[in-house]
Design brief:
mainly beta; 26-stranded antiparallel beta barrel; four-stranded mixed β-sheet; 5 helices; about 5% helix; globular; disordered N terminus
């Protein structure tokens, strides 16, 4: 889609500007002359600069514009500034001033201003914008009636197998902007006190695609994607008071935030008028399709009080600690059970008008760092984290997806109680280090974590870990650091039906049999609650064999073995390695190169079964297992060379990244109706990026810059590619209409030309 283009100059004018700079770049003159006053000022004062020019983007691409604002082809203003003013070091009334602006001509602009009287008071201001692009070529057939209500075209006909909706499709960009502005003040008060206060206001607006579902069960869903509106604000504020003397430091803070969603709900007309099962909330003969509605993220508040401090003890020992007490509040009003007036929803009214949600948090940290004797180091850390969810519990007899009448009895599976999760966690770790010989230290450590949760399958989970680290610098040009950790996790018991037991109404539970009734398979284990063993090893080496060469090598490997999980995640492994090198053979030349490799592998086991026929949950032929593999290679290089000392510089960079993901599924022998598309198609992302920039110092104060960037991105994602909203294949009771967005694919060329004015203020 050709998007609306910003105002820009014609290429002919820009071409003349660019070509005018070329002869200047070819002047082989000596370095600009500098007088003694200029040299002295450079040593004592930071230089200011203002950059003004243009950017020319050759292509339309949401992927290239993501976070940059360069989504359209054409010309953009290139504007940057960094203005600094500092009084002389011996000024009796010192003052610092700074104004920095980045990307002022783009949607990714940023401004920072700061003013201070050192040792007395100061203030700052911040502003930034960042665009987020979610898709390429998304489409919808809905009309927008208002910002959060979607209707169908007047000539819309019932969707059935083979129905073409292509004539109704229109393109919709899925993107939003994030704008933040804020500031703060600080002051030095009497009696060793410091005060500071900050405030930020963040606003997001735009659109992005989300799913919307009609239907009663997993067997008859009818879903569409909606370009929902994003419009919310988040305000945060913080105040702090610090007090310090030689051996004791104390800090007190208050932090708060307010989130406000300006979109309370989203409604849409159900387009599946031809799919009827007798339970639809509409009159099929009259052609009234019914509506769907869903709530949006609720408004909420957060408050937190923090106290922290540190104290120096004898024997080279220091203790530090902090305590944070917070409370989160949410009382956004509930929507009715359904938006469809044709449905019966009065059997059991909502038990309350809003959630009246409240979570109290407590966080305590305590640390001791000590070097009581030479060559020996001890570190002890303890952390207590408690989240107490005080939200009231009630029974809600909900209506599934605006598609059925409300049940007439509380003994219904749709009579559910909300589950306000809480947890308490204790974490303790201890390290002891000893210098076994010169510039070589061995560290041994032990850590213990216990987590208690309510309303979940495992009420108590604990983890123990032991580790060792060796740091050595045997010679001045070589440093090595290696570490190993082994951990094991256990739980008191695992009750797979606990969420159901806590979530259904007491009337329904009176007939509940946990041996034959369950939502998750009894053998399934959630990975963060399951028994597991973890091993991790890593090493980092740095070498500088000669003054002009630097080399770094890193290797990290980790594996999680969920040895007691018959179903669920059973194994996970990560590996990462890399090498980077830099070389500066002469003063005028600097070059570097790096390579990194990343690998992630996971394995899981599953069991396909139907809750209406529990015998299938015991049929071995319905078992399956899957394996995910992700591989990534990244290589980069670049160099800087002064073609003419202090006059003409050249910078080049090249980056190549390749990531591949594979998903394989193995089915048990005799698996019923096996899909024909196993294994899944591979996922892939490939990026080439190359840039070059020339900097020419025309005079002491004026510098000319010319740059070029090439980027080629190619991706493949089976979840997006080939899934077209017009290519429907609906069954008698189920169908999904996607947005048709595609995997990012673009080739971008970006040219820049600018003039930089440098000065002292």
């Amino acid at each position: 889609m050709k998007r609306a283009k910003p105002d820009r100059w014609q290429w002919s004018a820009a071409g003349r500007i660019l070509s005018a700079g070329v002869p200047i770049l070819l002047v082989a003159a000596g370095p600009p002359a500098q007088d003694e006053e200029t040299k002295r000022r450079e040593l004592m004062t930071q230089q200011s600069e203002i950059e003004l020019g243009f950017l020319w983007n050759a292509d339309d691409s949401n992927a290239f514009g993501d976070f940059t604002g360069l989504a359209n082809d054409g010309f953009y203003v290139l504007g940057n500034t960094d203005i600094r003013h500092r009084t002389a070091w011996d000024d009796p009334d010192p003052m610092n001033l700074r104004l920095r602006g980045l990307n002022l001509g783009l949607d990714s602009r940023e401004v920072f201003a700061e003013w201070e009287r050192p040792g007395r008071y100061g203030a700052f201001f911040t502003f930034d914008e960042i665009p987020k692009y979610w898709n390429e070529q998304g489409r919808t057939f809905f009309n927008k009636q208002g910002d959060s209500a979607f209707t169908l075209p007047s000539t819309w006909t019932a969707i059935a197998n083979g129905t073409s909706i292509a004539p109704f499709l229109r393109e919709v960009d899925s993107r939003y902007m994030r704008r933040t502005f804020g500031g703060g003040i600080s002051a030095v008060l009497p009696e060793n006190l410091d005060f500071s206060a900050e405030y930020d206001h963040l606003h997001r607006w735009g659109r992005y695609f989300t799913g919307a579902t009609m239907g009663l069960t997993g067997g008859n869903p009818r879903a569409v994607t909606l370009p929902e509106r994003v419009d919310d604000t988040t305000q945060t504020w913080e105040t702090a008071l610090d007090w310090a003397i030689d051996a004791l430091q104390l800090d007190f803070q208050y932090q708060g935030s307010r989130y406000e969603n300006h979109e309370d709900s989203v409604t849409w007309v159900n387009p599946y008028t031809a799919v009827t099962t007798g339970n639809e909330p509409w009159d099929a003969d009259a052609g009234y399709p019914g509506q769907g509605r869903k709530d949006q993220a609720p408004d909420n508040w957060f408050h937190q009080i923090i106290a922290s401090g540190g104290y120096n003890l004898p024997w080279n020992t220091r203790i530090t600690g902090n305590a944070a007490f917070g409370w989160m509040l949410q009382n956004d009003g509930f929507l009715p059970y359904t938006v469809n007036s044709a449905l019966v929803s009065t059997n059991f009214p909502l038990p309350r008008s809003d959630l009246n949600g409240r979570i109290d948090t407590t966080l305590l940290n305590f640390q001791v760092h000590s070097r009581p004797i030479e060559k020996t180091r001890f570190d002890l850390r303890y952390r207590y984290d408690d989240r107490d969810n005080e939200t009231p519990r009630d029974t809600y007899v909900y209506i599934r997806n605006d598609s059925e009448d409300q049940d007439t009895t509380l003994a219904s599976p749709e009579a559910r109680r909300n589950r306000p999760y809480s947890f308490t966690q204790h974490h303790l770790d201890f390290e002891a280090g000893y210098e076994i010989f010169k510039r070589t230290e061995l560290t041994l450590g032990y850590d213990w974590t216990q987590t208690e949760r309510d309303l979940q399958e495992a009420k108590r989970v604990w983890e123990n870990g032991v580790g060792a680290e060796l740091y050595s610098r045997p010679v001045s040009w070589f440093t090595a650091r290696t570490h190993y950790r082994h951990a094991w996790r256990d739980n008191a018991s695992y009750k797979g039906v606990e969420p159901q037991w806590e979530g259904w109404s007491p009337e329904y539970l009176a007939t509940f049999n946990p041996s034959t009734q369950f939502e998750n398979h009894p053998l399934l284990r959630k990975y963060y609650l399951a028994k597991a063993q973890t091993d991790a090893v890593g090493a980092l080496f740095t070498l500088t064999p000669i003054e002009t060469v630097g080399i770094g090598i890193n290797v990290d490997w980790a594996r999680d073995d969920f040895y007691n999980s018959d179903l669920g995640l059973t194994d996970r492994e990560t590996f990462a390695s890399g090498i980077d090198a830099s070389w500066s053979p002469i003063e005028r030349l600097y070059t570097h190169a790096f390579y990194s490799y990343d690998r992630f592998t996971s394995q899981q086991k599953g069991w396909s079964w139907n809750d209406s026929d529990l015998n299938t949950a015991r049929t071995l032929t319905r078992r399956w297992q899957g394996k995910d593999k992700d591989r990534g290679h990244t290589v980069g290089t670049g160099f800087h060379v002064d073609l003419i000392p202090e006059r003409l510089g050249l910078d080049t960079q090249y980056l190549f990244s390749w990531v591949r993901g594979t998903i394989g599924v193995d089915l048990a022998q005799g698996f019923p109706s096996p899909p024909t598309d196993f294994p899944y198609p591979n996922e892939r992302t490939r990026i080439h990026s190359a840039s070059v920039r020339l900097d020419f110092q025309a005079t002491e104060q004026i510098e000319l810059r010319v740059g070029y960037l090439f980027e080629r991105m190619s991706t493949r994602d089976w979840a997006l590619d080939g899934v077209e909203p017009g290519g429907l294949n609906c069954g008698t009771s189920s169908c999904v209409i996607d947005s048709g967005q595609r995997s990012p694919e673009d080739t971008s060329h970006l040219v820049s030309w600018s003039v930089v004015y440098k000065f002292f203020w």
